[in-house]
Structures are given as C-alpha cells and as structure tokens.
Design brief:
Radius of gyration of chain B: 20 Å
Distance between the termini of chain B: 37 Å
Helix content of chain A: over 70%
Shape of chain A: elongated
Helix content of chain B: under 10%
Structural class of chain A: mainly alpha
CATH architecture of chain B: 7 Propeller
CATH topology of chain B: Methylamine Dehydrogenase, Chain H
CATH class of chain B: Mainly Beta
Order of helices and strands of chain A: HHHHHHHHH
Distance between the termini of chain A: 19 Å
Number of strands of chain A: 0
Number of domains of chain A: 1
Oligomer: heterodimer
Largest sheet of chain B: 4 strands, antiparallel
Strand order of the largest sheet of chain B: 3-2-1-30
Number of helices of chain A: 9
C-alpha cells in the first residue's frame, strides 16, 4: 500500500504543469526542437529528486536520534503547518527568467519542488513503523517517487508537444496546489492520529 | 482586505500563445481613462459598450488632478509562463496611475460594470519605496506588476520602473539594479522568453507638464534612445540612439510571438523636417540595432490655420503618438495625432512595412468629421490606439496629454472615441461616443475587457 502511495504521489507531481513538464515543453516549442524538450525532462527530475531526497535524508537522520513517536508527531505537525501555509498564503513561487542553462533548470526544479513541499508528503511513509526495519527505505522511496514523477511528466510533455497542444492548459490545469495543500494537512493529521491511537 | 483571488481553473482570459489569444471571443466592454484638464473635477474611468459605443459605466476617482493616462491589468497571460506559474489568479483589477498626481489606483472590475475602487497607493509610498513619481505604463509580468515612471521622487529623474506585488498591491521597490546611462523614461515592455526588457524615453516632469518646451525640443533634449535590459538581472545592457533629431521615442510594441526578438517604436517628431517615424529594433550579431521602417512627412499648411506653436513652421507635423501591433504581429496601426490620420501597415516583414489602409478624422487643420455625424468637425486626432485580440477591431481616442492638447488644439481638443473594422478598414457607424458622453473629460487610453493587443505577453509560440 505504501509503495502504491509513493508511486501515485510521484505521478501526481509529474502531472502538475508547475512541477516541470510545462517548462520542458516551453523549451521545446521555443526552438521547435523535441530534443531540447526531452533533454530538459531528466534535468527537471533530477532537481525533484534532490528536493525529495533531502527530506528523506533529514527524516532518516532525525529518526535515528529521536523516538518513532516523536518523529511522527514532528512530521505531522510540520505537514499540517506547511499545508495551512500553502492553503492560506497567496504567495507563489517566482523565478524570473526563461532562458535557463541545464544546471539552472535543475536548480529551478529543486526550488520549485521544495517550495511546493513535494518531499513532505512522503514523511508519513518514511516514519511509518515498518520503515525502521529497512535501512534504505528513504532512498527507495525517493527513487521510486521520482521515477514515477519522471515517467508521468515525460509522457504528458510528449503528448502535449506532439499532439494535444497547450490550449489544453486552459481547461485541464486545475488548481492542484490547493488540492495539494489540503492533502498535506490531511496526511499530517493522519500521521499524528495513527500514533496517538496505537 | 482584498478578496482572495484563487480559482480552480486558469482565468479564462489567459492564453498560452498569441495564436490562442487571437481566437478569443469578441470583447463587450472597453474601459477608458478620462481626465479633467482643469483639475477641478475628479478624473474618471468610463466604461463603453463596444457594440453601441454607449457609456454604460462611470467611476469618478476619489481625488482631483490625477491626469489619468495609461493603465493596465493586475494579471494577464504571462501567469501561464512555466518559470513562475500562477494561472489561478484572476484578471479583475485595473491598475490606474495618475500621471500628474503620482497616485496609483486599484479598481475592481469583477461582477460590476462601473469599476470600484479598492486601493490607492499614495505618491509617498511609490516615492519612498521605489524612488519614482509620475507613474505611467503598467504591465503584468514575472515579478508582479511593473509600472514605469517618468520622474524621480522629489527630483526630476531618473525615471524608471517600480515593482508592485499582484495580490496586495504594495510597492516592492525599484526594479533597476544597474541602470547604466539611462535617465529618461516613458514606456517599456519585454521579450519575455528572451529575458529582455526594452524602455523608451519621453522627458522628465518639468519637460512635459507645462506643455512641450520649444527650446528643449529644438535643442534636441527630449528622449531619442531605446534601452535594452536584462529582465532577469535587472541590468542595463545596451542603449541605442536613434539620432538626436528624432525627438520623443514613445510607445514600444514588441512582437507577441515569444520566439521573435523584434519590435516597433514610434517617434513623435523629427526636428529637421517635422516628420514622424516608426522604428524597428532587432538583433544583429548578438547586439541590438534599430532601423527606421516608416516615415510620415509633415503636411504644409497656411500659418493662419495653425496654432502658435506651429506657425513658424508652416506645416502640420503628423505627431505619431501611439502605435499598436495586432496580436498575430501582422498589422501595425499608427496614429498621427497632428494630421488626424490612422494608418494600417502590413508588417509581416517587419523590415519592410507596407501601408494597407488609412483613415482621416480630426486633425489640426483637417478637422474631419466622423462618418456618423458628417456635419460635426472634430478636434484632436487619432491618439491612443488599441486593437482587439482577434485583430478585427481598432479603438481610438483623441486626447494626448492635457498641456499638449492645449498647445496643438488651442480652441479645445474635444472628446471622442471611434472604432474601426479592420477587414475593410472603415469606421463603425454606430460607435462614436463624443462630446457630453464624456462629461467634459478627455479620453485617453482604452483597455478592452479580457485583454487586448498591448496587455498580455505569452510564453508559448
């Protein structure tokens, strides 16, 4: 169940235009070059990986120093707090500039994913009781999540670039950020509740 | 407190590409900035029905003496850009600067015909935070709302660009990090996908607020340069001098196609022969270059028909005070406020515009009427020009700038707006709000509901 959740979350991030596939398509369209688009996708995934991996790393290190209950509580509070902030704040991620080198694009993706709290949603899985028994849980979760994100973003980018066109944005770009914020809060509450009950 | 402006779907007036925007539905309303020259009554935003030309809404400003000029939207299609996407914001607020008062007003247009004031940014906030006064052009872009300003705060210059955030409408500060040699300011826009910003030059407050100053004009002291900037680093990159005979480089119209790096700039007059011109900027071996692509000569006229300011010259200067580029980058509209003419050019090849249409109305000497009222001679000329997103309709108003109206049309500039159908390039017979329709105020910039050819930038070709 946990694995499915990790993959689905990756797919959700891949689906979100703001997380990178749209930037890849824009790069391609700007120079009428599919290669330029395809080149951007792994770079964007790399930035995402770094962002999610950082959260996993911090969770892992923290988990080795505090009790499972404390970690779960801390994670839950963090999730609820971040989710509330995303829900109520009207600020959005700003990066001025469209002409990015590939390292800049990776940095953009890292910052965008981090501002989004992409890795935070993995906390419930990383701090679940089962996770302690696997030393590499954090790494596995990070890689699988990013792979799902990369595949989803790649498929969408190619479909949009090759056939669907960007007009689809006007109808299909639902406010995923708001859904995401609510999901973060829900996951936080769930994480706290799970430990309070057991 | 401003309402939270988060939508579930992107604002329907945002379009990814100019091609998509050109397929937008026809506009139904036009917002027109109207100002009282005497400064005794408040300026106003008039709302026109674009079909009938009737004034269907009206909102007085809270103060007097603002001199409304240009204005713009809080958000536009650039919200879809992938670098900082925020498409669930609404295009609903008009950002309306007072060019003389330096107050910036925020008007809500949602669910109402007459806009409603929601905020006033006082001159002190603009001055203390950004160091500017006399706010002018408004564009929505990657860092929020950009507002150009002609003057410094408490001093003549330099003029420049201030940044406002697009949710609370607070002045965030001065945009420029390194302004290089730039001192004069007026209009600006960008090539958003190339991280390039372009600015133009008019004059400082003392050079314009009491009318055009003859000695300064003949001394070639008004602006005659374009400036190119790094939009991301906020640094001056290059200045391009058109030549100091070309006085007052005003409106900038970059190509809407984000893959292109050319645009057009209008020059009011040449002091050598009173001609007006349109220039095209483009890149050449990595540097910016300009080329004069349209030249409109002055028209000789007997001195007794001319206002004092022109009597010594015996000619009417065309005075190109505004230009507009259709969203598909095919047609450029050029208004000659002095001779009372609006010209249409096919600019499919931007290096070689071809004149495809011309209409005469008003004019310093011509005083030509609108076809719907052939017996009514008109003062003023085509001045602000705006093109609908689909390129089928062009809207004109007749006032330039208070003090300058009085010099060139000393017996009164009047007040009128007109609409042109571009397919056959003829005036719409129904659309002709004029005279008392504007309640004694002078109409200036027109903004079309949902966006127009000078309101939005696009990140996708």
């Amino acid at each position: 169940m946990s694995l499915t959740a990790v993959l689905l979350l990756g797919a959700f991030h891949g689906l979100n235009p703001a997380m990178g596939w749209l930037f890849a398509v824009a790069r391609g369209l700007q120079e009428r070059s599919r290669d330029r688009m395809l080149q951007a996708l792994p770079i964007i995934a790399l930035g995402h990986l770094a962002s999610v991996g950082l959260v996993a790393l911090v969770a892992g290190v923290t988990g080795s120093m505090v009790t499972g209950t404390a970690l779960a509580f801390g994670s839950g509070v963090l999730l609820v707090g971040f989710g509330l902030w995303r829900l109520l704040s009207r600020r959005h991620f700003r990066w001025v500039g469209m002409r990015l080198s590939l390292p800049q694009l990776a940095a953009w993706s890292f910052l965008m994913s981090s501002a989004h709290g992409a890795g935070l949603m993995l906390l419930p899985m990383l701090v679940s009781p089962g996770a302690h028994h696997h030393g590499n849980a954090g790494l596995t979760v990070t890689l699988l999540h990013t792979l799902a994100m990369f595949v989803t973003a790649g498929v969408i980018a190619i479909i949009v670039y090759e056939s669907a066109g960007l007009r689809i944005l006007r109808v299909a770009w639902i406010n995923l950020d708001r859904i995401w914020a609510i999901a973060l809060i829900g996951a936080g509450v769930f994480t706290i509740a799970a430990y309070t009950i057991t | 407190m401003l309402p939270i402006m988060t939508l579930w779907k992107p604002d329907p007036t945002f379009y990814p590409s100019p091609r998509d925007a050109a397929a937008a539905p026809q506009e139904t309303r036009a917002y027109v900035a109207a100002f009282d020259r005497s400064g005794r009554r408040p300026d106003a935003l008039a709302v026109l029905d674009t079909e009938s030309g009737e004034v269907i809404g009206w909102t007085d400003l809270p103060n007097t003496g603002d001199e409304l000029h240009h204005f713009g939207w809080n958000a536009c299609s650039s919200a879809l850009c992938p670098s900082a996407p925020h498409p669930h914001i609404e295009r609903r607020y008009l950002i309306v600067p007072g060019l003389r008062s330096s107050r910036i007003h925020v008007y809500d247009t949602k669910d109402r015909i007459s806009p409603e004031l929601v905020k006033v940014i006082e001159p002190e906030e603009l001055g203390e935070r950004a160091g500017y006064s006399r706010p002018h052009t408004v564009h929505c872009g990657p860092e929020g709302i950009y507002v150009s300003a002609l003057g410094g705060y408490g001093q003549e210059g330099p003029g420049g660009i201030a940044i406002l955030d697009h949710t609370k409408f607070e002045v965030l500060g001065r945009w420029e990090v390194d302004r290089g040699p730039q001192y004069l300011a007026y209009d600006f826009w960008w090539h958003i996908n190339h991280d390039v910003l372009v600015t133009s030059e008019w004059g400082t407050p003392s050079m314009i607020e009491n009318g055009v100053v003859g000695e300064l004009l003949l001394g070639r002291k008004y602006g005659h340069k374009l400036h190119f900037w790094d939009l991301r680093k906020r640094r001056h990159v290059q200045e391009v001098d058109l030549g100091d005979q070309y006085q007052m480089v005003l409106e900038l119209r970059p190509a809407h196609d984000p893959t292109k790096t050319y645009g057009f700039a209008g020059v009011v007059t040449s002091v050598e022969d009173l001609s007006a011109s349109v220039w095209m900027w483009h890149q050449e071996n990595g540097r910016w270059a300009v080329r004069k692509v349209i030249d409109i000569p002055a028209e000789p006229a007997p001195a007794e028909l001319l206002p004092d300011v022109l009597k010594p010259f015996g000619a009417v200067p065309p005075l190109v005070t505004d230009i507009a580029l259709s969203v598909d980058d095919r047609f450029l509209y050029v208004s000659a406020w002095g001779t009372g003419e609006i010209k249409q050019f096919d600019v499919s090849d931007p290096f070689a515009p071809v004149e495809t249409g011309s209409l005469r109305i008003g004019g310093i000497v011509g005083r030509r009427p609108h076809p719907s009222e052939p017996g009514l001679p008109l003062a003023g000329g085509p001045q602000m020009v705006e093109v609908s997103r689909d390129g089928s309709r062009v809207y004109l108003t007749n006032s330039l700038y208070g003090a300058w109206d009085d010099q060139f049309y000393p017996d009164g500039v009047g007040a009128w707006a007109a609409k042109i159908h571009t397919a056959d390039f003829t005036f719409d017979q129904r659309f002709f709000p004029h005279g008392d329709d504007f309640r004694g105020l002078r109409p200036h910039q027109v903004r079309l509901q949902g966006g127009d050819a000078s309101s939005d930038s696009y990140c996708y070709p």
